[in-house]
Amino acid sequence: MNNINEKCLLRYLQYPDELSYTTEILKLNNKILEQKFIMKNILVNISSLNYTEGVELT
Predict the structure, then answer these.
(1) Quick one: which H or E segment has residue 34?
(2) What pTM was estimated for this model as a whole?
(3) Cβ neighbours of residue 4 closer than 8 Å, sequence gap 6 or more
């Protein structure tokens, strides 16, 4: 499977008048990647902290 950035670049080279469309696709892809990063790295760690917060060590 090709990278979304490569697809957008190829599309732009084929249809330079569609630069704004290609730019919006890249923005959307970046936002999706950012949300996946947040879900994977930040929210998982927060839920892990909340789960172990009430545990007492003796």
Answers:
(1) helix 19-37
(2) 0.51
(3) 25, 26, 29
Count the helices and strands in the chain (H runs, E runs). 3, 0
29-51 residues labelled b (16+ CB within 10 A) or e (exposed): eeeeeeeeeeeeeeeeeeeeeee
Residues with Cβ within 8 Å of residue 5, at least 6 apart in sequence = 26, 29
Token code pair at residue 12: 């732009």
How many CB atoms within 10 Å of residue 21? 13
Of the candidates 4, 25, 6, which has an alpha carbon nearest to the alpha carbon of residue 14?
6
Per residue in 5-35, pLDDT (tens digit) is: 788 788 878 888 887 887 888 899 899 999 9
